[in-house]
Write a structure and sequence with these properties.
The complex is a heterodimer of chains A (about 200) and B (about 850). With about 200 residues, chain A is α+β, with helices and mostly antiparallel strands. Chain A contains three helices and nine strands; from the N terminus they run αββααβββββββ. The longest helix of chain A has 14 residues. Chain B is α+β, with helices and mostly antiparallel strands and about 850 residues long. Helices cover about 25% and strands about 25% of the residues of chain B. Chain B is built from 23 helices and 34 strands. The two termini of chain B are about 55 Å apart. In chain B, about 45% of the residues are buried. The chains are: A alpha+beta (about 200), B alpha+beta (about 850).
Chain lengths: ~200, ~850
């Protein structure tokens, strides 16, 4: 449809760059819809930035290596909405639906891995998820490795594969002084030397 | 000088068996597992911007050193009390703008006149302005330094951003830069514009600048900027958000000069206050939401709309000015002509607006007890894609925010407060906020939202509207000190949320949510420039918010804190405060020395970890052998008989067979009191007399008093493992299970910041002591907070207790998830849950 273009004064016509409509014709309608769904709410700069916290605890008392992920509930629900395709168009509802919580937990489980000094993946099992306040917790565990690890290697891609500015922080506790790993930007694998005191 | 006989070794060594004069019981010494009770070796903080004076000998660290030597020197612009000085100045920038939105081209074309007044004592040869839209030029620093997350995969978001930028012509096209009709030499430097003045602008002088410009709008979904357009494929319409859309004056301040830093997208900005008169030309069926008050409603609103607005003024619930049906109808018609909406705003530091034909518009008046501004119109603008969530909650959340925040600072000074739904997730400008949440469209055609989405909307609106106060009015510099407005705002947001509904996600012990961060490595102090901060989110929002909350609830108490905070807000309303002004004001107005608090929380990366290491129970001895001897005998007899003695009981002892071997010592046990003992007691009492004292018997009297009071004395040893000094909050539990809470101010650490001993006395015996029972000090390790020691299980131990050996192997939920559900959990929340992954179907843990 054509529109009457009116300009204020002559100044705008003179030397003004012609405006080109940004192309989104690259995307077929279906793909556009899909992408629109994929990016439900973009990162807001004035609000809290995308971040999650994980504690990896060598727990002598329980005999387990315990992994406890803490996500902002709203972030988790956005992700769950994107990865879960509900048949009737609804988004994920983490409060009301255990199934959605499980699926999010599985999503996290698939993106968090531990390896030993030889690069062998450690057998973490998914223990479950729960809501506490404004957070969603996801739990993983395995028996404490025997013999004790010298080096712990970690990958943590949860949420980072969807949101490039997501930052995942990990505290490794129970094996000497607390060590902290930060997964952001282009980081893929990080390691902790457990023998240093 | 003789001391009260509490624990002195029994001097008369001839009494071998038992100590007469002490009854010292160290409660349950074996309960201390070795590794947790020994005070950990003190490790100096790794990073501290201003290491409190440390010694080369010894370990004394001055945690209570006054902060004055670190803070900027008070001057005529910002005084030592933390208030604006008697010569405080700030520049003034007022704008008269004509702008047109070209909907099809997604472009704005504008023409402005800036009236800039130089209130500084300096002459200015050039002026700097911001051209923030230059960030989207493909040769901008921001764009060229953008990185992607992984090498072998690209997220859809990254791909779309790349595609958009390839086609997009970003940046500001300047077509006129003049003053009083005369063109001025100027230079564009990234996102900044420098205008060179023909003659310097003297102190007190003013200048008029005329600038014409245009720029294309950015796809708000592709790039997540603070402004741009969002295209709705279904109905073919856009929502336009306009922020940072006009060339505006860079701040020139007393503490930094020109604040001309390139805009990279993260650290925001500070701006000058001024008045605005803006005429916005848009398609005639658009609804415009904007900073300021609408000056020409008769020209742009229908009589019905004007009537509804009037109705909204005293309504009890929001009133639609544009109903959902009306908005829906407009979506399919595109008017060919235009209308010009004129808005005026006084004393604002920025100007933003939004426009769309999709907007549903509701409003409700808010009356407040303030002679200067008794009435505020709260309004929300949103497309149908935000309903029913927005109709229900947005405007009410706006009003709620004003009600709460005004109590803590000042009555809201502007005529409107607005919440607009568009592609920006959450962003704030004077009188207008952009908030992102949407609802889901079901196949049935119905739109729904989850509980989490509802909480998020309310939280976002509260947070963004909260920003009207900080920093839009209390104009702190977000670029340098993001934490001032974000930390203060997060802290007030929590308070507002708690007052929204009963079981809002509990902030009880909110301090504990920050402990994971505070015990981690690689932190930087809060007082670090925002553009280079690692853990940006935690350092700018959570840690300062937690610190303020602790200051309010634990250190100062609500009354003193609220008074001081209100003082700070009102002093710096419409002015530009710095952190030093906040620190100084809080101290001066509360009357409490807080330098240790600012130092610890804002200038260091120390954390809180106070440990209770040992408790010694003591009773005052009467020193009277007749009394003590009997007591000792009783205690001895109460002790368990040894195994050997039990076995030997039946054996006839020698002195029983030959009684003539018995003597005085057999008939008088070691606890027998002799006259010598009694004489020694008399001597002891006499030694207590101080002949030169005004009351020579004062010690005897004290002893007599103590004996009469018959209290239990406890010496409690604490160590400061984390380095951050905090008050020691104790809960004592007594024999009868009653409890008492005790607050020991942080000054207890002033002579020795590593370890202290505290003496308390109580009538009843204490059976347990706990440090920080309400988890309010952000103590990172509560396992050393208990006496007797308690095992503190990890979260996972509580959620999923470890199996004992011999149990069935650990359940693997990866597998269990694939087991088909037997019934639909959506219809019975929490009722049927084939794979129990949560402890509570709805809501939070206790």
């Amino acid at each position: 449809m054509s529109r009457n273009r009116r300009y204020y004064g002559g100044a705008h016509a003179r030397g003004a760059l012609g405006a080109r409509r940004p192309k989104n014709c690259l995307l077929a309608l279906g793909l556009a819809l899909f992408l629109a769904a994929l990016f439900a709410t973009p990162t807001s700069h004035s609000h809290r930035l995308k971040s999650a916290f994980t504690t990896v605890l060598f727990n002598e008392r329980s005999g387990r290596l315990e992994v406890m992920h803490q996500f902002y509930l709203h972030d988790a629900e956005q992700v769950a909405t994107e990865i879960v395709s509900q048949p009737d168009g609804a988004g994920a509802n983490l409060f009301e639906r255990a199934e959605d919580r499980q699926r999010f937990a599985v999503y996290v489980h698939e993106r968090f891995s531990l390896f030993d000094q030889d690069g062998e993946q450690l057998p973490l099992t998914l223990r479950g998820a729960e809501i506490d306040g404004e957070f969603l917790w996801v739990y993983q565990a395995m028996r404490l490795p025997e013999p004790p690890l010298a080096v712990l290697v970690m990958e943590h891609r949860a949420l980072r594969d969807l949101w490039p500015d997501q930052v995942n922080t990990v505290n490794v506790e129970g094996a000497g002084p607390i060590r902290t790993l930060t997964f952001r930007d282009t980081v893929s694998r990080l390691s902790v030397d457990l023998t240093e005191q | 000088m003789t001391n009260l006989n509490l624990s002195s070794p029994f001097a008369q060594a001839t009494r071998a068996a038992a100590a007469f004069l002490i009854t010292a019981v160290t409660l349950a010494p074996m309960a201390f597992a070795a590794e947790s009770t020994e005070a950990k070796p003190y490790r100096p903080p790794v990073q501290s911007l201003i290491p409190p004076v440390e010694q080369t000998r010894g370990t004394f660290v001055d945690r209570f050193r006054q902060l004055d030597e670190v803070l900027p020197t008070p001057n005529a612009y910002r005084n030592a009390a933390g208030a604006p000085g008697h010569e405080y100045w700030q520049q003034e920038a007022s704008y008269r703008i004509d702008v047109r939105l070209d909907e099809d081209a997604r472009r704005v074309i504008g023409s402005e006149t800036i009236s800039y007044t130089n209130n500084s004592p300096d002459s200015l040869r050039y002026l700097w302005l911001q051209l923030d839209q230059n960030r989207f030029k493909d040769d901008s620093i921001d764009y060229r330094t953008l990185t992607v997350a992984e090498s072998e995969r690209l997220s859809f978001g990254e791909l779309r951003r790349l595609q958009f930028m390839r086609d997009f012509e970003g940046g500001v096209a300047l077509t006129k830069v003049a003053s009083n009709g005369r063109d001025l030499p100027h230079a564009v430097v990234g996102t900044l514009l420098r205008i060179d003045l023909p003659s310097p602008l003297k102190p007190g002088g003013s200048i008029r600048l005329e600038i014409d410009w245009a720029h294309n709008l950015v796809d708000g979904k592709a790039l997540s900027p603070r402004s741009g357009y969002e295209h709705f494929v279904d109905d073919g319409n856009d929502i336009f958000l306009l922020a940072q859309w006009y060339p505006r004056m860079v701040v020139y301040s007393d503490y930094e000069g020109w604040h001309n830093k390139e805009f990279l997208g993260r650290g925001e900005f500070t701006l000058e206050f001024g008045d605005y008169d803006v005429s916005i030309t848009v398609p005639s069926d658009h609804i415009v939401s904007s900073t300021g008050e609408l000056a020409n409603p008769n020209q742009v609103l229908t009589p019905t709309q004007r009537k509804r607005l009037k109705e909204a003024e005293d309504a009890e619930r929001p009133v639609y000015v544009v109903t959902p049906d009306e908005a829906l109808e407009k979506e399919s018609i595109r008017e060919q002509d235009t209308k010009t909406w004129r808005f005026k705003a006084e004393n604002v530091r920025d100007f933003a607006w939004a426009s769309s034909r999709k907007f549903i518009w509701d409003a409700q008046g808010y009356r407040q007890d303030d002679a200067d501004n008794p009435f505020v119109m709260a309004m929300s603008f949103f497309p149908k894609e935000g309903d029913p969530l927005w109709s229900r909650y947005s405007t009410q959340a706006v009003i709620h925010t004003m009600e709460v925040y005004s109590r803590f600072s000042f009555p809201y000074p502007y005529p409107t407060a607005q919440s607009v739904n568009g592609p920006a997730g959450g962003m704030e400008y004077p009188m207008i906020t952009f908030n992102g949440p949407r609802t889901e469209l079901r196949e049935s055609g119905e739109r729904t939202y989850s509980r989490a989405a509802k909480r998020f909307l309310i939280g976002v609106v509260i947070h963004e509207v909260g920003h009207f106060y900080f920093p839009m009015i209390v104009n702190s510099d977000e670029r340098q000190w993001t934490w001032i407005d974000e930390g203060i705002n997060s802290f007030l947001q929590f308070i507002a949320e708690q007052e929204w509904e009963d079981d809002y996600p509990s902030r009880r012990g909110e301090a504990r949510w920050i402990v994971d961060y505070m015990k981690s490595e690689n932190q930087v102090p809060i007082m670090t420039n925002s553009e280079s901060v690692l853990q940006f989110g935690n350092n700018a929002y959570a840690k300062p918010a937690t610190a303020l909350n602790i200051l309010r609830e634990t250190i100062l108490g609500r009354e003193r804190f609220d008074f001081a905070f209100r003082e700070f807000s009102q002093r710096w309303m419409f002015k530009r405060p710095t952190p030093a002004d906040l620190f100084r004001t809080m101290e001066e107005a509360s009357g409490v020395d807080l330098d240790w608090f600012w130092r610890g929380w804002f200038y260091s990366t120390n954390h809180v970890d106070i440990s209770i290491d040992k408790v010694t129970e003591l009773k005052v001895s009467t020193s009277n052998p007749d009394v003590e001897g009997e007591a000792k005998r009783e205690a001895y007899l109460a002790e368990p008989i040894s195994r050997s003695d039990l076995n030997n009981a039946e054996i006839e002892k020698r002195v029983e067979r030959l009684p003539w071997l018995n003597d005085f010592y057999n008939e008088n046990d070691p606890f027998t009191v002799s006259n010598q003992d009694r004489n020694d007691y008399g001597d002891y009492l006499e030694s207590l007399i101080e002949p030169l004292h005004s009351n020579p018997n004062w010690k005897q009297e004290a002893l007599a008093q103590a004996i009469e009071d018959d209290l239990n004395y406890y010496v409690i040893e604490f160590s400061n493992v984390g380095g951050l000094v905090m008050p020691i909050i104790l809960r004592l539990t007594f024999e009868d299970e009653s409890t008492e809470d005790l607050y020991l101010p942080a000054e207890i650490w002033r002579r020795d910041p590593h370890a202290v001993r505290k003496l308390i006395a109580r009538e009843q015996r204490v059976t347990a002591i706990e440090v920080d029972p309400h988890w309010e000090t952000a103590d990172v390790d509560v396992s050393n907070n208990h006496f007797p020691r308690r095992m503190i299980p990890s979260r996972l131990e509580i959620f999923d207790p470890p199996p004992t050996p011999g149990d069935i192997p650990d359940r693997d939920l990866m597998h269990d998830v694939t087991v088909p559900l037997k019934s639909d959990p959506a219809t019975e929340p929490g009722a049927v849950d084939p794979v129990p992954v949560t402890s509570a179907g709805l809501g939070e843990r206790g």
